[in-house]
Structures
1.
Amino acid sequence: MPNALLEVKNVSKYFPIQGGLLKRPRAYVRAIERVSFQLQPGETLGVVGESGSGKSTLGRTIIRLYDPTEGSILYQGHDLARLNQKALRPYRRHIQMVFQDPYASLNPRMTIGALIEEPLKLHTKLSRQDRQEEVRRLLKIVGLSPDAHTRYPHEFSGGQRQRIGIARALSIKPSIIIADEPVSALDVSIQAQVINLMMALRETFNLAYIFIAHDLSVVKHISDRVMVMYLGHVVELADKKELFRHPLHPYTEALLFSVPEPNPHKKKERIVLSGDIPSAANPPQGCVFHTRCPKAMNVCKEVKPVWQEVSPRHWTACHLHTKQ
Amino acid sequence: MTVQPEALKSSGQNSKMRSKKVDSPWRSAFRRLLKNKFAITAFIVLIFMFLFSFVGPYFSPYKDAKISVRDQYKPPSAEHWLGTDQLGRDVVLRLMEAGQISLLVGLAATGIIVLIGVTVGLLAGFYGGWIDTILMRFADIMYAIPTLPLLITFGAILSDLKFPPDQRIYLIMFVIGVISWMGLSRLVRSQILSLKEQEFMLATEALGLSDRRKIFSHLLPNVVPIIIVSGTLGVAGAILLESSLSFLGLGVIPPTPSWGQMLSSANNMIDFAKRPWLWIPPGVAILITVVSINVIGDGLRDALDPKMKR
C-alpha cells in the first residue's frame, strides 16, 4: 500500500545496560525488534501484549521520545527516524500522544487552559484570543465545560483528566494519535465513556489511532486491525475479526483464551501459559516464544520464524504456518 | 471540520462544574498555612522582629553613634530599658540596628544560595550526563570543605587586608551564600530527576517544546515549593552563621553592630557575671528569630506538600 499515512519499517530499540566505571554498555535490552507495520488514514491499530512486550516502547519510539536503534518511521514519506529533535518539530503536530496515567500526565501547577493552549502556542500562529476560543471549543468537544479552563488538574476525576489529555493531543489537529493504555487506569464505567469519546472523535476528525492496551475486550471494541506483540516482536497482525476468529499464533490463542467469559455456563477451552516472559536482555534463540509455547517444535528452538502474510491481510511469524 | 458537540456529548460525564472560585495549588496551600496556628504565631513574631529592627530606631530618643562615657554600663532603667554598653550607647537602639544587619545578611545570603543552588540543580538534573557529573562533583567538593575553618581563614584575610567594616557585611553575605548552596542544589536536582520521568514531561517532549519552556513553565513551578521551604530555613541558617562568625570576631566588626557581634563584645567574665543586659537581649533576639523562621519553614512545608504528612 503506497499511500500509507505511517509506515514503520524494521524498527528496533535497544536500551543499553551500563556498567562499570566507564559506563560502557555491557549488554542491551532488546525492547522492540524489527517491528514493521503500516497505518492508513483514519484506521485504528490495536497493539496488545503482556507487560514487557514492548508495546509502550513502540509507541514512544514512533513519536520519537526514544531514538530508534535502527529502522525507519515514514510519515507521509518523510523518515522521522533520521531527523534530529529540531528538524522533527514541524512533524510533531501530526502525531500526538495520550498517556496512560491521567494523574501524572497533566502538570499539576498549570491550569487546564494553559495546558491545552500550550501546543497551540508552539505550533500555530493564532492570536491569544483565538487560542482561548479554541481551548473552549476543545473542552466542549471532549465533553467538559468550556469554563473548566481556569481550573487545575487536581479538581478533576481520572476520566475527566483523560479527556483533558485527549483535548491537549487534539488541539493541533494531528492525523495520528498514539494512545498508550489510555483507559487502563480508569474505572470500567469510565473506560467505556472515554473509549466512546475516542471513537466519536475518530469519525469527526478522521484520526488514525495506534491504540496500545493489554485489555483485549477494549481493543476488540475500538480497533480495525490488531497487532500482537511478545518480547519486542510482532507475532501476529490481522484485521480484528479475522484475528479474534482465527488466531494463528499460539501466543495470540493463549491471549484470546485469557479474556474472561461473562457467561458462567459456557464452558471454554483453556490454554494456560506457564512461566514468565523471558528477559529482553537475553531473549531465547529461535522463536522468542518457544520457551512457553504449548506447540513448540524442535525447529522453533533454532530458527527464527519468518514474518509473512499467511492469508490475505493476515500476517504472522510462526513455524506452524510457515509456507515453503 | 465542523463538530457537533451534541453528538459527542452523549459520552460525557459532562459539564457539571461547580462555579466556586478557582482553587489553585497556591491558594489551597495558603489556606492550609492559615490553619497552622504555630506558623501564624511565628510569622507574627517575625514581622515584629522586622518592625522592631527597621522601624524601631525612628521611635528611639537616642542617636546612632552617640558615645558617652558618662553613661557607660548603666543597668536597665526608665531611660535605658535595657541599659547601656561599654561606650554608653543605648542597648535597645543597638539591638534594633544589629537586627537590621543580621536580618539583611540572612536574606541576602539566602538570595545567593537560592540563585546558585537552583541554577546548578536545574541544569544538572535537566541535562544530566557530563554536565550533571561536573556540577555535582563540584558541589561534593564544596560540601567537603569544612565551613568554619574556611570562614575563619576568610575572616582573617579580610582583617589583614584592612577591609572597611561597613563594606565587610556585603562580603559576609556573599561568602555565606557561596558556601551554602549545595544542599539546595541537590534537593532541586533530585526533584527535577523525578519530575523528568513523569508523563507530563513526556507530553512536553511529544509536543516538541523548547528546553527553555520545559524548564521555566513545567519544571520550575514544580520545584518552587521546595525552594520556598528550603530558602526559609536557609535564612535561619545564614543568620546563625553570621552570628557565629561575628561572635568569633570574624564577621561584622565594630562599629557596625550585629546580634552576634553584640554577644561577642560582651564575651568576658565581668560582663557575663555582672551585666546580663548586654548579652541576654541579642541572644534572645537570635533565638526568637531563628526559631520563628524555622517554625514558618516547617509550616510552609506542610502547607505546600499535603502529601508529606507527619
2.
Amino acid sequence: MPFLKGPLIKKFCTEKSSYIYDVNTNEIVSVDSVLYDVVDFYGLYSGQDLRSRFSGVYTADLLKEAKRKLALAKKEEGLFSTHRPSSLDYYKNMEAVEGMLAHGMQQLILEVTDRCNLRCRYCIYSVHYPHTRVHGTRTMPLETALKAIELFMAHNQDTAEPALTFYGGEPLLALPLLKKIVDYLKRNYTRNVRMNLTTNGTLLFEEAARFLKENDIAIVVSLDGPKDIHDSMRVYANGTGTFEVILHNLRNLKKNYPEYYDEKVGIRTTLACVDAAETIRDFFISDTILFKDKMILTGFVDTVDTDLFTRNIVDINDKGAIARLSAVFHEAILKQVPIDPFLDSLFMRSLKKIHKRIMEPLGETHYPNGICCPGARRTFCTLGGSLSVCERVSAGLCIGHVDTGIDPQRVCDILQEYIKLSNPQCVDCWAVRFCSLCFTSIYNDRFDIERKNKICEMVRANIKADLVLYCTVMESNENAFESLL
Amino acid sequence: MFETEQKYASKQSSLKLEKVFSNNRTKITSVRDSMSMACDCGCGGATYPEIDGFYAVSAKHPG
C-alpha cells in the first residue's frame, strides 16, 4: 500500500483565530477549532478512525460534519488537496539555458578586490567561516575586468536595464580600478547600465563621493545602528570602531550631494544581536536628517556555517525584541501612520510576498522561486577571472571563465544537481510557494543537502511567523496592504 | 473577502470555514513581479532593493 499523505497545508494561529494555509490553492482559510484539529487526518482516517482519535474530545456528529465540510471545500474550492508537485522543474532544457545566456545576462558582479580595511566580527570572509575565502591583498587586473565587461555587454541585449555591481572586499579600496572600468564602459557602450556597490562607508571621502555621484552609482552603506552596537562588530583591523568616521562621511555626502544622497544611498543593517533591534530602530528614527525615508535593509548574521554567534542570536519567533517590534508595526498599521524604513524592512517586505501571492493552483511541476538561471540572472567574476553562480556562493560553483565564456552544460549540470537533491523535500514542503532559497543554501564547498535542510527549518519558521503577523494585521484592517497590489 | 462564508453557512453547518485575505491575483503581471518572487539579493539590495524576503541566510555581504 502506498504511503498516504494528508493535505498539503500549514496550520497556524493568531491571538484571535485559527488558520490553515492551503498550499495548492494559495488560500488562507479561517477555521474553528474542530476543523483545525481534524484537517490533518482528512483523507487519511476513516470515520471510525477519526472517532477513535478524537474520542472524548468531539462528538461523532461533529466529526461527521467536519468531514462533510472539508469534503465540500475540497470539491467546490479545491482546498485541502493532498496533491504534491511530481517534481521541481527549472530550465531543464539546454536550449532555454543557451538562449538565456546568449542575450539575457542581467547582472555582472566584479570582485574588484579581496582586500578590506575592516575586520567585522561577523564577516563571512573571517576565519570563523570555513567555506569562504579569507581577506586578501589582491586587486582585480584591469584586463580581467574589461574582458568580463565585454562578455557581459555582448550577452545582455534582452535585458532592459543591465546591472553592474562592484564587490569586494571593500570595493572603494579599488577606486582607481573602478574609475577605469566605468570610463571604459562609457567610452565603448551606449547602453545604460545600472551600477551599484555595497561599501563599509569608511572610505567615502570626497574623491570617492564625487566619482559615485558623477557616475550615478547607487551605494548601500553598512551601518549597524548606534555607536556602541555598530562598533561592537564593525571594526578596523586594530579593533577600533568605525561608527564615527562613517557618520562623518554620510553627513558630508548628504551636505555636498543631497540629491544623490536621497536617491542613491541606502543603509544595510546587520542585526548581529537581535535583542538590540529596538535600540537600533530608535537610532535610525532619531536622526531625521540622515535617515528619514532612507532605504534600510535589515539582515541577520549567517549562523549556519559557524557557531560563533549562536550565543548572541535570539530566535526570530521568540517573545523578545522582534516580537515587540512586530506589535509596534501592527499598531502603526492600525493607526495608519507611516511605517518607518526599519520596520518596513523587517516586516513589510516579507508580508508583501504573502499579500502579493499568485492565486493559481499549484502545478504538476513547480520551479523553486529562489533559484535563478546561473549566468543569466547574475554572474560573479572573481579576481582571477573565474565566473561563478553568484557572489554568495563559494567560487567553487564555477560556470566558466572570462577567456572562454559561460559553459551552458555546466549551468545545466548545476541546476540539475540542485533539483535532484532538493526535489524530495521541496515537493512535500508547505512553504514551497514562499521559499526563496537558492544555490547559496545548498553549496558551500560542495553540494550539501544537510546544510540546506538546516536552513529550510529556519526559513519555514520565518514564513510561519510572517503568516501569523500577516493575518493578525489583516484581522484588524483588511485594507492594510491594499496599496501594495 | 469573506465571500464563501454565506455559501457554506447556507449548507447548514455550525463549523466555521471561510477563505480569507484572498487578493485575486491570478498571474504574474510584470517582470518586477517575477523578480519579487526571486532570490534574496546578495548585493545588499543595491540592485533590486524591492525584492521581498530577507531571511537569516541573506545577510552575507562584505565590507
3.
Amino acid sequence: MFFSLSRRDWLLRCLKTSAGAWGLSVGVSRAQDMSVLGRVQDMSDARLRNFDEMIAPYVVRQPVKQGGITLSLPMLADNGHLVPLSLKVDSPMTEESHVTHVYLISQRNPVPLMAMFVLGPWNGRAELSMRVRLSGTQMVVALARMSDGTFRYETQEVVVTEAACIDNG
Amino acid sequence: MSTARLQLPARIVEGDVFKLRLLVQHPMDSGFLRDLDGVLIKRNVIRHLQCILNDKEVFRVEPTTGTSANPLFEFYLRATKSGELYFRWVDDKGYIGELRQKLVIEPTNQSKAAKP
C-alpha cells in the first residue's frame, strides 16, 4: 500500500506530519510559558548540585579540607526567606595566618553563591553572621580561604519548610 | 531609598576585639518573584558593601540574591585607633548608600598611667 502512493501524495503527507509536529511543539512551549507555577516548581525542585560543583568556581587546585569552621544554622527553617546563619573560623587572625575570604554556597538556590566576605588580620576574629535565603531543603557549604592559600570548609543540612523564590512565600 | 543602622558596644577599649552589627534597609529583590499583577520584579540587590576605617578597607561583603531582604551583617574589628567608620554600598540600580559613624576608642589603663 505504501508503495502505491504517488510521489506527490507522499510529499504532501510529509508536509502535513511535519506541520502537525511543529504545531504541537508551539502549543507545548506556549503552555510552558503560561504556567508560572510550573516554572516556580522547577526552581524549588532544582537539581541539587554536588559538592565539587559547588566549590569549583572558587578553588583552583588548592588543597581543601573539612573542619576548622563552626557553621551554625537552624536544623529546621520555617521560612526560607530568612535563615539566620553564623560561622566561626578557627584562626588566630594574625598577619601570618588569617582568613582572607569566606564563601557561603547553597546547593539548590538558582544563584549558588549567597555571599562572599573579605576579611583580614584587622578583624581580630573570624566570626560572621548574616541572614540568607534558601530555596528548599538542602546542604549549605561555608568555604574559607586562608592566607596560605589553602581552603577549609564545613557543611550543614537544613530542612526548609517554605522555600524562598516562590511568590507570596 | 536605603538606610542603615550600626550597633556598636557602648565602650571600646584599645586592643579589644569588638562586634559590629550593621542592618541595611534594602529590598534585595531577587528577580525571581512577581508582584500582585504577575509582573516580574527586576533584580535589585546590593552588589558590594565595604567598611572603611581611616582610609583602609577593613570589611567587605558581596551579597547576591541569596541574601535576605534588609540584610544584617555581624562582624568583628580589632580596636587600634579612633577614627571614622565609613560604610558604602552600591546596588544594581546604581544607588550608592553611605553611613558614617564616629568610632571612639578609649586608651587602656596602662597607657593612661604611662602618660604624665
4.
Amino acid sequence: MSQLQEAHGQVITSAEHLHRDAKGAKIGMWLFLFTELLLFTGMFLLYAAYRYIYSAEFHRAGLETNTLIGAFNTIILLTSSLTVAISIAAIERGEKRLSIAFLVTTVLLGFLFLVNKYFEWSSEISRGIYPASPKLMEQSNGENLFFGLYYAMTGLHGLHVVAGIIVLSSLVVLLVRNRITQSDPVKLENAGLYWHLVDIIWIFLFPLFYLIK
Amino acid sequence: MRRAMQTTPKSAGSSVRYGTYILVWLALIALTSLTVGVAGMNIGALTVVVALLIAAIKSSLVVNIFMHIKFEDMIFKVFLGIAGLILFIIYALTFADVFIRK
C-alpha cells in the first residue's frame, strides 16, 4: 500500500518536473522566435522605406512577380501549418501513427513549396530578372531595389523552410523511435512553433511582393 | 498506467480539437482568397492597408490557435506583448524618420 503510494507519488513528481522543463523549453523557443522576428523586421523596414520613396517603381516591378505561384505557395504553407498542428495534437492524444503521417505530410508540403520556388525563380532569372542583371541595371533604382529585396527576403525565408524541413524530418525519426511521446511532446511542439513562424513571415511576404498592382 | 497518464499535466494545446484546427485553416484559406480578390480592385492607397490588415488577422489566427498562445499561461502573452511593443516602436520611429526626411 505504502509502496504503491510511493510509486504513485513518484509518478506525480516526475510528471511535474517534466512539465516545468517543457514550459522552460517553450519559453526558450519563443525567445528564439523573437530574434528571428527581429532578423526579418530589418528587411521589412527596408522594404517599407524604399516602397514609400519609390512607390511607382515598386508597383511596376510588382507586376512582374507571379501572383498565381505566390497564392499557391501561400495555400501550401497554410496547409502545412494545419498538418503540423494536427501532428502535435495527435501525439498529445497518444496517436503515434497519425502523428507520424501528418508530420511526413508537412515535410512533403515544405518540399512542394521549394519546388514551386525553384520554377518561379528559374522563370524570372531566364527573363533577366536577378540582382544586378543587365536588364535591371538599365531600369530605375526602385525596380532594382524591389527585386533585390524580393530575392533577399524570399531567399532568407526559403532557407528557413529548408531548416524547418531538416528539423521536422529528424523529428519523424524521433517519433518512430519513441523519443517523442504523449508524455514528452515538447520537441515536436517547439519545432511546430518554428514552422508556424515561417508560415507567418510568408503571410506578410505574399501581399508585399505578389499583390502590388 | 491509465491513472498515471491522467495525473500527467496536460500540455496547453491538448484540449484543441482537430475540427478547430480545420476551421482555422478554412478561415486562413478564405482570407487568402479575399486578399487576392481585394488586390485586383482599384482602391488606390487603401490596397496595402487592407492587405496588411488581412495579413495581421491571418497571423493572429496562427499565433492564437496553431501556436496555442490563447491557451498558454499569462507569461507567454506578456512576452508576446512586449515583443510586439518593441517592434511597434522600431517601426514607428523608422517611419517617422522616413516621412520627415522626404
